[in-house]
Specification:
The chain has 713 residues and is an all-alpha fold. It has 3 domains: 125 residues, no CATH class; 188 residues, Orthogonal Bundle (Arp2/3 complex 21 kDa subunit ARPC3), CATH 1.10.1760; 250 residues, Hypothetical protein af1432 (Orthogonal Bundle), CATH 1.10.3210. 66% of the residues lie in helices and 3% in strands. It is built from 31 helices and 6 strands. The protein has a two-stranded antiparallel ribbon. A two-stranded antiparallel ribbon has the order 2-5. Helix 24 crosses helix 28 and helix 28 crosses helix 31. It starts with a helix and ends with a helix.
Length: 713
């Protein structure tokens, strides 16, 4: 009896089985274990002869014993030839003939119906080609409508008989063009007018379909039988027979003989490989336990687990390449700190410490006796992790390279002095250790963008790049929607201050604020901050249409975000920063104009509401900045009251329910907003020429008209 799991999955459903998280995680663990064990164990795996096909043999190689072996290449050649001679097997499909005859009858019925209609011959021909679902030429359509009644009757008799005659002989896909050509020749050789022949040839050719289906299974079976009938070709090599002489090019036949003699596959030290496997299993078990306890965010995310496995395997693989270099000091150049640096930046600082210890231990195993490289790896990695605890600019990653170099240098000199090495040796080894640190930083910096994009991770480095005013999308925003650009800068300052006050990600909210209104690039003139002295286009639009234009900047912003490949953390805030708020200005305008009332849901954003502290802070900062800017005579009291009213309204509207912000957090947010705005909207000195007065009057007039609308944009 099948188990419930088997019943859900079905028999032979590996894809469905792989859909289970446990199976995927077990698969990831198995492949990681296998790759790490193989990479670390390479020095205990068989050391084959250094011969390559097509290259000169390094030495003369003779057969150490007499053997008989099967010539697999010759055998395969003979078997392939035998299989090639087997003709494909085709099975007839009787349903195809009926389908073709049915299609023919439908075509004939359509021809008769069109012929019976009024109209000119060209019009009938055009109508007929449109009605018939067949690949007919214009000349064929003209011939069909031009037939006399007698010719039409002849067509109805001859066409089915001709189709039946041809298809009963069997039609293969590959033979279809040739059969149609022969069919046309047969029709031309028959009796009748040119129109009848054209109609007969076109209709019958159009409905012909292959009715012989390739039986791939039977064909393959017969070919396998043909292969099996060929006996393996036996060869004999006598003892002391020269297989290949020194300097001669190594042929494929030579390689086959060496394989048969076992000279290319010496024995493996399985005990050493087993020891490595046990150590790798132990390290993976410790890492899993550590993840569950101290890094549950990573432990519960398959994508992040895959990233961690990729970093571990990639670091060990790079190390294996360095250990293949025969020079004794080459191993000291292995940038083992690259892995921990990437883990610290992409995943978790504490997890990076564990990665440093485990990768350094694997490095020591690959290096053989002694702990020099393992100690250097731990020291350098920890130094780099300290340098990237809080990345605020790209130079921090470069600085990490110097930290790794300094730690490597200290470890090399300390261990060298303990071992009694001379100053000359220490100087060379220390120099390589310094290069090691710089190489670690270079590899980490170079691989970061690819890992960020592949795994959808938004690192501080990525945010810093996005926050650069020279970013193409920000340049577009500045040039095409300058008012929105400057509004976004102020929103970024507000949101960052609030984030610092409540322990949220200040860098993320600042950069997300820069991009939160990029959708306004598509229609900047519809948003008040970009109108300057231009007429307001909303004055000539219905409230419903204005609402649609205003709310569509979210969707259009998401399209631009996809086009410019903004990371998920930014696009999430972009999508959520208005939540499901009401576009109250146009809602109340519509309510005043409507006699029967309006649906409030038609004037709300699509949402969702903010799902994180960061998204909620951008929402509040956006609303506060727009509202404060519209105040005619801002005072600190007015500003504070407006800030708290906006926060209270958003809270009452349910916009902050899923953001994890507490009431204490909201109080701190209000204080942070007030502090920043006080520095922005401070009292201005009235200039003697009245320019500031004119500016104040213009702002006041604009505020009276559009304050409510600004708060919704």
């Amino acid at each position: 009896m099948r188990t419930p799991l088997q019943q859900r999955l079905g028999k032979g459903r590996p894809a469905a089985l792989w859909g289970h998280a446990l199976v995927r995680r077990l698969g990831l663990g198995f492949f990681t274990f296998a790759l790490l064990t193989t990479l670390v164990s390479l020095q205990w795996l068989p050391q084959r002869l250094k011969v390559e096909e097509g290259k000169p043999a390094p030495d003369t190689i003779s057969a150490p014993k007499t053997i008989t072996y099967f010539d697999e290449a010759k055998t395969a050649e003979l078997r392939d030839n035998a299989a090639r001679l087997v003709e494909p097997v085709y099975d007839p499909d009787i349903s195809v003939l009926k389908d073709s005859l049915d299609r023919l009858q439908e075509a004939l019925d359509a021809v008769r119906a069109v012929r019976a209609q009024e109209g000119s011959a060209p019009d009938k021909a055009k109508l007929l080609t449109q009605r018939l679902n067949l690949p007919l030429t214009a000349s064929a359509g003209q011939a069909l409508v031009a037939l006399s009644d007698g010719e039409m009757a002849a067509l109805e008799r001859q066409a089915p008989a001709l189709v039946r005659e041809v298809m009963q002989q069997g039609v293969r896909e590959t033979d279809l063009p040739e059969i149609r050509e022969r069919l046309g020749q047969k029709v031309e050789a028959g009796q009748g007018t040119a129109e009848l022949k054209e109609a007969l040839r076109s209709l019958t050719s159009a409905v012909l379909k292959p009715n012989l289906v390739l039986n791939a299974e039977e064909t393959e079976k017969r070919r396998q039988d043909a292969r099996a009938a060929i006996r393996p070709v036996e060869r004999e090599i006598l003892q002391d027979t020269v297989i290949v002489r020194k300097g001669d090019p190594v042929t494929a036949e030579d390689i086959q003989k060496l394989q048969a003699l076992g000279l290319l596959q010496p024995k493996t030290r399985w005990t050493a490989v087993l020891g490595v496997a046990l150590l790798v299993l132990l390290l993976m078990g410790l890492a899993l336990a550590y993840l569950r306890i101290l890094a549950p965010r990573v432990a519960g995310n398959e994508k992040l687990l895959t990233l961690l496995a990729l970093i571990a395997v990639g670091t060990v693989a790079i190390g294996r390449l360095f250990f293949l270099v025969p020079h004794p000091l080459a191993a000291y150049l292995f940038p083992v700190a690259t892995g921990p640096l990437l883990v610290a930046i992409l995943l978790d600082n504490r997890l990076a410490v564990l990665a440093a210890a485990e990768l350094a231990l694997l490095t020591g195993i690959m290096a053989g006796p002694g702990l020099d490289l393992a100690a250097q790896g731990v020291a350098g990695s920890l130094g780099g992790i300290l340098a990237v605890q809080k990345v605020s600019q790209r130079s921090d990653l470069t600085r990490a390279g110097f930290f790794v170099s300094a730690a490597n240098l200290s470890a090399v000199w300390g261990l060298g002095l303990l071992g009694g090495q001379g100053i000359g040796e220490l100087t060379v080894a220390g120099s390589i250790g310094v290069l090691n640190g710089l190489l670690s930083a270079i590899l980490a910096i170079g691989s970061l963008p690819y890992l960020e994009n592949a795994f959808g991770i938004t690192t501080p480095v990525k945010l810093l790049e996005l926050g650069n005013p020279s970013h193409p999308l920000l340049r577009r925003l500045l040039l095409e929607a300058p008012g929105t650009y400057h509004h976004s800068i102020v929103v970024g300052n507000l949101a960052e201050a609030a984030a610092d006050a409540v322990g949220a990600d200040g860098l993320l909210v600042r950069v997300a604020s820069y991009y939160h209104d990029i959708g306004k690039i598509k229609r900047p003139e519809f948003f008040i901050e970009n109108q300057l002295l231009s007429p307001n286009p909303h004055d000539k639009m219905s409230p419903g249409l204005s609402t649609l234009v205003i709310t569509s900047h979210i969707k259009e912003g998401l399209e631009l975000a996809r086009e410019y490949r903004l990371p998920p953390a930014i696009t999430a805030i972009l999508q959520q920063h208005h939540g499901t708020t009401l576009v109250s200005y146009f809602y109340h305008q519509a309510a005043a104009e409507s006699q029967g009332g309006v649906a409030e849901d038609d004037f709300r954003y699509d949402g969702p509401v903010p799902q994180s502290k960061e998204a909620a802070l951008v929402m509040l900062a956006d609303s506060v900045e727009a509202a404060v800017r519209s105040l005619t005579s801002p005072t600190q009291g007015k500003i504070d009251g407006l800030i708290r009213k906006i926060i209270k309204d958003r809270l009452a509207d349910g916009q902050l329910d899923q953001s994890d912000l507490t009431l204490r957090d909201l109080d701190r947010v209000a204080a942070a907003f007030s502090w920043v705005i006080a520095g922005i909207y401070h009292p201005r000195v009235e200039y003697p020429d009245g320019r500031e007065t004119l500016k104040t009057q213009a702002n006041a007039e604009e505020g009276k008209k559009d304050s409510a609308a600004r708060n919704q944009q």
